[in-house]
Amino acid sequence: MIVRGLYGGYCALLFTALGSLALIVNLFLPSLRHRRQVAGACSRAFLRASGIALEVRGRELLPDAPCVVVANHASYIDGLVAAAALPPDFAFVIKKEMVRVPVANLLLRRLGSEFVERFDRHRGASDARRVLKVAANGQSLVFFPEGTFDETVQIRPFHAGAFAVAERAGRPIVAVAIHGTRAVLPPGTMAIRRARLRVEILSVMPAEGARQRSRELIAEALGEPLAP
Fold first, then answer.
1. Sheet holding 68-71, edge to edge
2. Whole-angstrom Cα distance, residue 143 to residue 162?
3. Per residue in 67-93, pLDDT tens?
4. Please, which residues have CB within 8 angstroms of residue 202's CB and are 6 or more apart in sequence?
5. What is the percent of the chain with per-residue pLDDT over 70, rounded to a whole number?
6. Dihedrals φ, ψ of 215, to 5°?
7. Burial class (CB in 10 A: 0-12, 13-18, 19+), 131
8. Does the predicted TM-score (pTM) go above 0.90?
9. Which residues does residue 177 pair with via DSSP β-bridges, in sequence order?
10. What are the strands, taking DSSP E only, across the chain?
11. Which pairing describes strands 68-71 and 140-143: parallel, antiparallel, or unpaired?
């Protein structure tokens, strides 16, 4: 328990230091791509310095053209892992509650993230139109279409937003399975644990009909059941 506590404290300090570094550097970089490169490098540095191995499979499947990535969501660390694994061409679509976290809000905005409202239908529709415009202008996007997570090991139903944006913008869907984040940062705690991570790019498919197909592929890759 003592060793785990010391390790958790070390990871918390490391995360704060590297997050602060990423924010400070990104305040002065004019290029969005360069800002994302810094964030990705800091994410990989955090994992390496924490002794957490990250493997990326199927990177060659990523299209050269704009696309919409959909990935499972099991932990608060999913976004960091995706940023470490993916090239610096993606804007993350994030729940609007994150705007209330001052430092994270600023960094995410500097990285071109898009915030969407989950609970107010009118504001949510406005946010969806804005995200669609971003996709139509050639920006690749990352969604976690389950929207949330808890202690239950399962793949929740996917919300329609990512697939509607992809279909209307004429972008393919890329199904991605993120393995191991539930072990590294379990739901209900902020204590990092050491475990192996793997990001697996599974398939590229047309947006039409991809909502259920991508969910099934991710569930199969993870060996997790589909929630009813």
1. 54-57, 197-205, 173-179, 68-71, 140-143, 90-95, 114-116
2. 6
3. 999 999 999 999 999 999 999 999 999
4. 58, 61, 175, 176, 177, 214, 217, 218, 221
5. 96
6. -60, -45
7. buried
8. yes
9. 200
10. 54-57, 68-71, 90-95, 114-116, 140-143, 173-179, 197-205
11. parallel
Q: Which two tokens stand for residue 210?
A: 């991809």
* Residue 124: predicted pLDDT: 58
Instruction: Tell me how far apart the alpha carbons of residues 226 and 224 are, in angstroms, rounded to a whole number.
Output: 7
Residues 172 and 141: their CA atoms lie apart, in Å, by 11
- Is residue 159 within 8 Å of residue 147, measured between CB atoms? yes
Residue for token pair 């499979």: 57
Question: Is domain 2-222 in CATH 3.30.2010, yes or no?
Answer: no
Give the closest residue to 58 by CA, choosing from 202, 178, 179.
Answer: 202
* pLDDT surpassing 80 at residue 180: yes
